[in-house]
Amino acid sequence: MLSKPNTANRAMLTLAVAAMLFAVGHLLRHTVSCFLLSFVIAYLLDPFVVHLEGKRLSRAKGIVAIYIVLSIFSVFFFSFFVPLAIIRWRALLPNLPIYIQDIKNLTLQFQTRFEPFYGAEEWSWLFDNAVDWVNKVVAGLGAGVYSAAASMVFNIFNLILSPILVFFMLFYKAEIKRTVAGWLPDKRKAVLLEIGNEVNDSIGGYIRGQVIVSLIVAILSAGALFILDVDYALFNGIFAGLASVLPFIGVIIAMIPALFFAYVKFHTWIALVKVGIAFAVIYFLEGYLVKPLVFKRSMNLNPLLTIIMVMALGELIGFWGILLAIPVAAAAKIVSMAFQRGDFRDPEESKEAASTEG
Q: What is the domain partition of the chain in residue ranges?
């Protein structure tokens, strides 16, 4: 009789601790962002370190070797890619107010051309609100630029601090695992370690797979838009790669900037059709070829739960919340399945349950 209240109390305590951690994470979102960036990079690099250890290279030497390779790549990246991105960004900034004005003009043209026979007042109200929203975007453009600059400062700080955190995460990986295992209760240590390994495999596989998928989508999208002569193909491709992190609606969000730039430049519906076909082919390849090859197993998550997790964690900690929402949901599913199997029961409780069923 006392087991049910205890179980309920433990569940309530777990929820309270989770809520407290989310609140603290929101308050310290920049620190959390730096930690999560380091966490993701460490997950991506750890298989290479393990591979080098298998080649009889010590963990410290393996980490140093990987850092040397990354340093060479960084020199190439900052020498060629970053200047190209800066040039394109400088070309975009002076034209940004013009593009926003084009959005307003397109909205007004669409309102005059496609006014329905029924619900004209509701239709007009919808477009008036859309125009008001665009005006607010134009008015807040300066504040948005300031916010972006402040965010860039924190991101630069993260890029400087992250390599140090990643090094310690990789170097002290075994010690961290032993320390965490020492905190676990002896009765459930084996079960918790097994669940932890399963969660670790799920999170690591998803992060590595999603990074590969996003890179492929970004490269294919930028290449397709460059061939179609759409302005700012590089930025549109990067945006498409980032949008591919979003489940279900990522493809729709990825197409919006590309369609806009295509229409502003060519002013024909044919250009929109070409861009739409290009993205349809890319996301068909992503869904039916790239993801089945990259992701070894499906997480089989509920679509509604996935969307809720993406929205909630994205609101709390931004991009990293969106990226980690699916593996967090997968981890929660693994833990809930363990509860359903009765893995957390005491041996006495399991015997009583078995005798009752018998």
A: 20-117+129-183, 188-346
